[in-house]
Amino acid sequence: MSDLYAVMGNPIHHSKSPQIHSEFAKQTQQDLVYSAMLVPIDSFESVAKEFFQKNGKGLNITVPFKEQAFQLADQLTVRAQTAQAVNTLMLQADGSILGDNTDGAGLVGDLINNHHVALKDKRILVIGAGGAVRGILQPFLNEQPTSITVVNRTFEKAKVLASSFKEFGNISACEFDQLDGPFDVIINGTSASLSGELPPVPDCVVGTHTAVYDMMYGKEPTTFLKWSQSLGAEKTLDGLGMLVGQAAVSFTLWRQQQPDSQKVLMELRKQLQA
Ligand code: ATR
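A: This is the predicted complex of the input protein with 2'-monophosphoadenosine-5'-diphosphate.
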C-alpha cells in the first residue's frame, strides 16, 4: 500500500501542496499518496492523531493549525522550537511524532538558490511580526547577515520578537519612521498584500541594489512589489518559490530524497499566469 501524507488546514481548497508533493513523488519515484484534508476548527488534535494511528506517515500543517501542531509534536527541531509553530509532522520509527518548520528554509533556499540573493553580510529589513515572520528569523540569522531590522505596525510586537531571537545574531526592532536605508534585502512578511495594502515603509529603504521579497503571491505582482519596482529595486520576488521550497524541505525530511523544485515552480508559475 502507498504511504499516506496530507496537508491539514481550514480552509484548504486553495492548497497547492497535493499537486507539488505528487510531482515530487513522481520525480523521485516514491510510492505515496498526498491529499488535502479540511479539518474542523476545533478538531485538529483528534484528526491529526487519528491520521498517524491509521499509519499516516507525514503531514503538512497550514493556517490556522501551526501552533496546535507545535503543541502536538513529541519532539521538535530547533527551528520549529524558535518558530513556535510547526508546518511539518513526521511519524518516526519509534511511533513518536517529530515537528519541524520548513518555511524559513524554503524562503532562504528560494532567495539563495533560485534568485542568487546573498544574505551573508547583508542588511536585511523584515516587515511584520506575526507567525510568518517568527518562522523565518532563525534560518535567516543562520546565514550571518550584518543585521536584521524588524518593523511592525504594532511596534511592541517587533520589540518582543527581536529580543527573543537575539541569541542567534544581530537583530533589532525599529519604528517605521526611524528607518534609514537603503537595505540590501527586504522581506514583506505582513498580510497587508492580501487586501492590496502597503505597510507604511518610507521610500528610502529601497535602493537600486535592493532585492525585495513578498511572502504573498498572486497572478499579478503584489502592491508591495509594484511599489518597490516603482522605486527601482533590483529584484522584486513573490512567495511562490517559498511555497515550493518549504514543500521540498518537508519532502526531503520525509523521504530522504531531494526533489527538483525548480521544475515544479516553473509549472506552477505557468498555471498561475494562465
Ligand atoms: P501571519 O501568521 O500570517 O504572520 P499574523 O500573525 O496575523 O499572520 O500577522 C500579520 C502581520 O501582518 C502582523 O505583523 C500585522 O501587523 P500587526 O502586528 O500590527 O497586526 C501585519 N499587517 C497586517 N495588515 C497590515 C497592514 N495593512 N499594514 C501593516 N501591517 C499589517
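The chain has a mean pLDDT of 97. The two ends are 36 Å apart (CA to CA).
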